[in-house]
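Shape matters. As here.
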Amino acid sequence: MAFVRFIGHYNVSFNFYESLYSMLEKIKKINKFILYAGFSCICLVPLFSGIALADQYEEKTTPKERAVFAFFRAAGSAPDYDFWIKTKGRYEALPEKSRDAYVLNEILRLGRGYSAYDADEDLLELTINVIVKYISAVDDEQPRITFEFFQADEAYVPTFAYPYGEDVISLIIDRLASFANVPLNEAQNNTLLPKIPYEDDYFDAKLIVHVRVDRADTEKPIMVHGVEQWLMIGDVAYLKCEVVGFMGRDRVLWDFVAPWYEEIFEQKNTPEEEKYPHPYDLFKD
């Protein structure tokens, strides 16, 4: 019994030291893991800080900035990023120590935006307030829908200004006036009449215009309304005339899609679920 107890005692002691040894090995492994994790954290903190800093400047370009891209893409040259950035009010407002980092990040952001800019798809979008008049048919003349700008001068050509540093880039929409007086056939007239608030009288409306810029003059600025501006000219890709309807909802009186833009327009306005075949359709003969 004593021997047995001894063996039993010995076995208990052996198991104890074996467990202790195993525990020490586990502690060593845990310490190694903690040490590795510590170094990883030290390395990852700057990495994530860098990512966070990058994300801070991963802002999308603004419509005004894309208008500047449009000008330079049409001109076949790149913007002067240094001039553009340093003449912004935000740059001037920064403390001296933060300016270099700001310039670098803005150059990267704007440079990526300019590289990705596609003149056929990244159209400039404008909203223009106008006054519209439906003119009823008289004698043999067709009914018409017309619009005018709020300026009284008939020779007025609307321009749309975009800042480029201290300079101004101005957009003129080519042949916009050709949509200002549209004769209506019988089908068009029947569709339009229920939508207009008044006949033979003016009412407020707005034009939504999508423009593709294809010409730009970089030789010298011109004077537009007393302001020196760089000129670019664009074609209408899409145009619609809207009027505020019942309960404040806008109603489209008419719209126009340029022939060269029809395919892109259809793609952009197709619901996502209709752009791709349904899984069941893949098994149809």
